[in-house]
Design a protein that fits this description.
Largest sheet: 5 strands, mixed
CATH architecture: 3-Layer(aba) Sandwich
Number of helices: 2
Helix content: 25-40%
Shape: globular
Number of domains: 1
Strand order of the largest sheet: 1-5-2-3-4
Strand content: 25-35%
Number of strands: 5
């Protein structure tokens, strides 16, 4: 299985988001080769979701929420991302503001 570099994957997701009108920005640039990728989704109704990409047992990438519950408030989401950045300063953070709570990486 060929692994796509994190920087290329993030760039593709940002282009896709722009194409389908998902408000999405690169909030933090990580290591272009192998940086972890976190997605902070603001559903514009007080609900926030923080997702991380991980490999499953079959070698496929999946997105999982990394908070205690799927939906949290903005403060909990920000604290969780700050904690992750203390552990891994090479990670990307993609910020999405979308009423449909779409993850632009799902289409890739």
């Amino acid at each position: 299985m060929t692994r796509i570099k994190s920087g290329v994957l993030v760039s593709a997701a940002l282009r896709y988001a722009n194409k389908v009108l998902i408000d999405c920005v690169l909030a933090r640039r990580g290591d272009a080769d192998a940086g972890a990728i976190f997605v902070h989704i603001d559903a514009l109704n007080g609900r926030h979701k923080v997702l991380a990409r991980s490999l499953n047992f079959e070698g496929q990438y999946e997105w999982h929420f990394i908070t205690n519950t799927e939906w949290v408030d903005a403060e909990v989401a920000s604290i969780r991302l700050a904690d992750e950045m203390k552990i891994d300063q090479d990670a990307f953070i993609i910020a999405v503001c979308d009423a449909q709570a779409r993850n632009p990486f799902d289409a890739l």
